[in-house]
Amino acid sequence: MIETDLKLGSGRTLHVYDTGADAGDSLTVFWHHGTPNIGTPPAPLVAVSDRLGVRWVSHDRPGYGGSTPMPDRTVAAAAADVSAVADALSIERFAVMGHSGGSAHAMACGALLPDRVLGVVAISGLAPYDAEGLDWFAGMAEGGVASLSAAAAGRAAKERYEELEPDLDPGFTTADQTALSGDWSWFIEVVRPALTAGPGPMIDDDLAYVTPWGFDPASVSAPVLLVHGRDDRVVPSSHSAWLAASCPSAELWLRPGEGHISVMSAGEAALAWLASKAGPRRE
Question: Considering the entire predicted model, what is its pTM?
Answer without folding.
Answer: 0.95
